Hints:
Elements: H1 18-24, H2 46-55, E1 58-65, E2 78-84, E3 97-105, E4 113-121, E5 126-129, E6 135-138, H3 148-170, H4 176-187, E7 192-193, E8 207-210, H5 212-218, H6 231-243, E9 249-253, E10 261-264, H7 271-291
Parallel strand pairs: 7-8
Antiparallel strand pairs: 1-2, 2-3, 3-4, 4-5, 4-6, 8-9, 9-10
Helix pairs in contact: 4-5, 4-6, 4-7, 6-7
Amino acid sequence: xxxxxxxxxxxxxxxxxxxRMRYLAPAIFADTVKHxxxxxxxxxxxxxxxxxxxxxxxxxxxxxxxxxxxxxPEHTQHMVAFAHRDxxxxxxxxxxxxxxxxxxxxHDGSGSIKLFVGSYRAICDNGxxxxxxxxxxxxxxxxxxxxxxxxxxxxxxxxxxxxxRIEQMRGIQLSRDAQREMAKRSALTRWKWTDTPELxxxxxxxxxxxxxxxxxxxxxxxxxxxxxxxxxxxxxxxQENVCRGGGALIKSFTEKNPDGMYRKARAINSVAExxxxxxxxxxxxxxxxxxx
Length: 292
């Protein structure tokens, strides 16, 4: 069964225990690597960098990993979000958010260990990930085994930059046209675009598509606190509707419904897809703010 990333945090939004992390993402604690890898591959174990993050004051608040019948659960792609322990407060108001560092790794040779700067908004359980300029990576080799702390230090320095950018977004009011543009571009991070497709008789359309109705659904707030027109609030409600199930209205074309049928989109349950879409959504919001 697919794992819903929303529920990979504790109910109190606080620190995850080791046992909880083992349950959510056992690949964090892998002691081996995929058997097909060569001796040149030097494993950067996620479990080994947890103490490094703790030394800098960061504790795990979310963990998830790729679910696959083919991939080994010990070696597959996984992510862990970290918040500074000083930001773990019990009470939140509608404007509360905290900076987070998101670690993405695998032990199967499919990629490097990556760190992203992110933000967590408590009222809607939104975990946001910064785009260009808010990421860094290390490849799994002997030369980089001791370089993680430097990468972490540089990532920590970017956290205030993101939080400052969030405050700037709060001060930018978006017109209806700018909001629709942000929503349309955001929809394209997951779905192709079609409004009223005009197809030749011999063309068969299959799959899920975004329409004008999708744009409207992405802009629909789910709570009073999300009804404002500043860029930060608009971006958050679009991100929530794009990533979570039931928020976005899309049109699906199937053999049974060749003319298309509207339905609610499913949530993103892929760790890699969650990172990709979230980073693109941040970049879109930044670009809209620049021209607003």
